Amino acid sequence: WSLPNAERYALQYADGRQTYITESNRRDIKNGSILRLTTSPDQEAERLYIGIQSKNVDVKTDSLKKLASLSHDVTFAQEFISRNGLKQIYSIVEEGNDTGEMLAHTLKAFTELMEHDFVSWENLSTVFIKKIVSYVNMNAVDASIQQLSLSILENMVPTSRLLFEVVKKEVTLDRLLTHLQVTNAQLQLKAMALLIALLLSAPDTERQEMMDYLREKNIRQFIHKNIIHSPEPLGDEMAHYLYVLQSVSLNLCEHRMKMSMDPYSQEQRDLLQSLRQAAFELESEAPAGTFSTERRRSLCAKEFRKLGFLNNSNPAEDLRRAPPGLLALDNMVYFSRNTPNAYSRFILENSSREDKHECPFARSSIQLTLILCEILHIGEPCSETAQAFYPMFFGQDHFFEELFCICIQLVNKTWKEMRATQEDFDKVMQVVREQITRTLSLKPTSLELFKTRVNTLNYSEILKLRQTERLHQEETLAVPVLELREKLKPELLELIRQQRLLHLCEGTLFRKISSRRRQDKLWYCRLSPNHKVLHYGDVEEGVQSPPIESLTEKIPVADMKMLLVGKECPHTKEKSSGKQNKDVLELAFSIVHDVEEYCLNFIAPTRYEFCLWTDGLNVLLGKEMTSERTQTDLDVLLSMELKLRLLDLENISIPDNPPPIPKPPSNLNFCYDFSHAEQ
């Protein structure tokens, strides 16, 4: 347009995030995008840099407000930071005593600028950090300022050991617990985020101390009552933090799980002897002097054999295997001390059975502890996106031990139902594992409910479920049925294609995952009803299904070139320098459109959504549907269709070869002559 001083101007998107157009992103401009002519990022950065130093409060506040809204743009952020703009922000926070709107804009701008990773968090001054901490610790501060301050501290903690120490010292656990008890859900969420960041960054001993302190302060009961059972539905982020808290708590058992028994440790030997004494105390009441040493040793060995130790002369040998190590001994001792009646009943009941039918308590306990460790992922690092926590975990003190007490009694019950012998030990434990995992998948809200359900799911129920599943999986393998199956496939695949496209038309809510935060903004994508255009755009939290007109961005299906999944996606390659997240990799896919460099990147909320979207996009590209869900759906539909078609053939064996066609008759005079029908 031959503007004088053209370098002072720039183009910027008029809607959405209002990003500046640069040489690097100019090819991303879509047809129909509305752009506006505005001052260039360097001019704007200069103007705001001067504006935030103004003595006029209104000018300063407006400049900070504008700065907060522009700082998300990487081009602008670079220009502002290069002018030493962060130093001005530091000084506003360090020197200012204002806790109003101006401070909120300043903290928002700071958060956005730091998000670009141009400046290290370690460069922050002690004065600045203490000021941020003071906003968290003060009572009479606006909630938005406290949220931003908590968010800043959360981002700060994982970056260095020094910053972790500073934040841990200045923001007490008591203060965070106070924030957790507010009714403001966002403030509660940010407080939980900082608590989790501190726990994950702490060394093992400090983490143990922090968890012990939180236990003393009854955080478990508070979470169970006020967060899990609050009237508001639980958001994805809070669910993730509860999963991490559960994982960190359970991982405190890892140390004992990996420690083998030391036969020379008096403390451990005493624990082992306490098991024997608790079970056979009446028989052992005779004075020690009445038995010779040899006789006493023989009696102990007999009692340890009745307890179910394989090595009855030296039971410590059974506990040398790690995992489960000493955790199995801890569980057995807990069971014997906290439910003495159930413990005595278990031991005495099995002592009176025939040798081959007795359920070995110690051997079962060791194996059960290992099974529970595997099911609850003890000793495994936390996933960065998982949300699968058990509500009953927060409803019970000593969760792991109490769960063991229920499950060891289940082992005995299942053993009797299966009429098992020692040779069936592995089979019994396999059934018990299945009973536990199936019951946990129902997400019982309390251990009492878990106990009721797991006991209802007896051996005969497990057999019925297995039989049903096997019938679903097995297909008749007769040749005619296989031929019919192949004949039905194209029609059913077309049905699946239609379903996938319908799902794309309904659309899905996606989350943007940034490099620093686990989850960031929400956006929505859906296919137009005529299957010709993909519409997408940012949406606010709480919006379930925005109308297609509100999604401003578009990609014509004709411009789509290719679908990338997993490691091939550009947004997973960018993160490969850091710790690669397996969960995100499994849910990532991208659409390459126009020229090969430009992609629309997705991270599906679930594996199910990932399968439906990748299938639907492959259909639009004219390619085969490749997800595991396609095969599952096809198998289910084929199974149903075949069963319907073969209903009349129940209990009739289908031959592999068709019956022979008889020879044609010598004459065809028996044919009806239709030409004389009218006469």
TrEMBL record:
Pfam families on file: ELMO_ARM (PF11841), ELMO_CED12 (PF04727), PH_12 (PF16457)
Gene Ontology annotations of biological process type: actin filament organization; apoptotic process; cell motility; phagocytosis
Keywords: Apoptosis, Phagocytosis, SH3-binding
ELMO domain boundaries: 267-440
Coiled coil ranges: none
SUPFAM superfamilies per the UniProt record, alphabetical: ARM repeat (SSF48371), PH domain-like (SSF50729)
PROSITE patterns from the UniProt entry: ELMO
Entry's Gene Ontology molecular function annotations: SH3 domain binding
Role: Involved in cytoskeletal rearrangements required for phagocytosis of apoptotic cells and cell motility. Acts in association with DOCK1 and CRK. Was initially proposed to be required in complex with DOCK1 to activate Rac Rho small GTPases. May enhance the guanine nucleotide exchange factor (GEF) activity of DOCK1.
Cited PANTHER family: ENGULFMENT AND CELL MOTILITY, ENGULFMENT AND CELL MOTILITY PROTEIN 3
Protein name, per record: ELMO3 protein
Organism name: Quiscalus mexicanus (Great-tailed grackle)
